[in-house]
Amino acid sequence: MAGDSKKLQPIIIKRVKKGGHAAHGGAWKIAYADFVTAMMAFFLLMWLLGSVTEGDKKGISDYFNSPLKVALLQSGSGSGDSSHVIKGGGQDLSRQSGQVKNGEIEAARKTINLAALKAEQRKKEMDRLQELKDKVEDVLASNPKLAAMKSQIRLDMVRDGLRIQIVDENGRPMFDSGSAFVKPYMRELLANIGSVLAEVPNRLTLEGHTDAMPFGDGDRGYSNWELSSDRANASRRELINGGLPDGRILRVQGLASSSLFDDKDPYAPVNRRISIIVMNQEAEERLSRASQSAALTAPPEADGQPVGQPASQPASQPTNQTASSGAPATR
Question: Is 322 exposed, middle or buried (0-12, 13-18, 19+ CB in 10 A)?
């Protein structure tokens, strides 16, 4: 029975089947691409080394050996300016030998001709003053009241800029006789001029003038000097009332009869006038330098008054004085 049980025992046979090679996928392509890239970089490096000059090679070698020393202490070809490997290099590809340094390229120089620049500035300023002159004329022509005074207004271009002169006429004075009181029509005229002058940045001076007729006590009292100064200052106030900023007025002065409009007739009404000069930049600078120079060389004061300058009497001095020769008072 035991022998029969052995015969009935199943026999298990294990057979191993060997399959084909598994697919490698695309990994080999990546490796091959890396190899080609490395070979390309190698040949590119060899080409670059063949194109670089010996001086550039030495500069590269020095840089990697001591980069800080080269950057701070050395200069020239092969040390710091060897950034181009193309023959000629730099900014000039037409060169066939060596790198072109910045120092070898003649840079375009920007030169400024001061004389030409000043001439151009003067021309622009003259054009602006000419436009101002035309605008003043338009304002006078557009106002019927002011148009009646056109014959009393003189506009001309002078060395210092635009000069606006308002002169007396027989029967139409600007001020009361021997007084700094402004006539009503004169106030309207000055207010309109002040509004126009407020539109330009130029500074201006005011000058008061009289004729040659002696006034009052002459040099020892209230004279044409004080009268012309008071009239110029009264005109300044009317310009400010018209809108002109006070800071734009650089100087107010009275010249009496020292600068006559009509030299042939010192007593003519046109000699009694107010001059408004809209100054150009050159005149303003010249006047400022003269003022600074005068301030530095001014004599010491005595009793509150500068030496050599008499104390002027106030403008409230009686204005109905007559001339010492018996002639009518200066207007």
Answer: middle
pLDDT digits (tens, 9 = 90+) for 245-279: 999 999 999 999 899 998 899 898 889 999 999 99
pLDDT value of residue 190: 92
212 contacts: CB under 8 Å, gap ≥ 6: 257, 260, 266, 267, 271
Q: Is the dihedral of CA 116, 122, 126, 129 positive or negative?
A: positive
Alpha carbons 156 and 173: distance in angstroms, whole number: 21
d(CA 216, CA 319) in angstroms, rounded, equals 9
Instruction: Give the number of other CB atoms < 10 A from CB of residue 100.
Output: 19
CB 95 within 8 A of CB 88: yes
Domains, the chain, ranges and CATH? Answer: 29-103 (no CATH), 114-296 (3.30.1330.60)
Distance CA(155)–CA(100), nearest Å, equals: 63
Residue tagged 């007559």 (tokens): 322
DSSP 217: T
Of 101, 76, 78, the residue nearest 91 (C-alpha): 101
205 and 253 in contact (C-beta within 8 Å)?
Answer: yes
Amino acid at 126: M
Nearest to 52, CA basis, from 101, 85, 74: 85
Structure confidence by residue, pLDDT tens digits, 25-62: 678 888 899 999 999 999 998 888 788 777 777 777 77
Q: How far apart are CA 289 and CA 212, in angstroms?
A: 31
**What end-to-end distance do the CA atoms of the chain give, in Å?**
171
Distance CA 297, CA 195 (A): 37
Q: How far apart are CA 306 and CA 65, in angstroms?
A: 78
Task: Determine the 3-state secondary structure of 162 from DSSP.
Answer: strand
**b/e string for 158-185 if b means 16 or more Cβ within 10 A?**
eebbbbbbbbbeeeebbbeebbbebeee
Residue positions counted in the chain: 331
DSSP secondary structure string for all residues of 7-26: HTS------PPP--PPP-TT
Q: 178: helix, coil or strand?
A: coil
Q: How far apart are CA 78 and CA 237, in angstroms?
A: 75
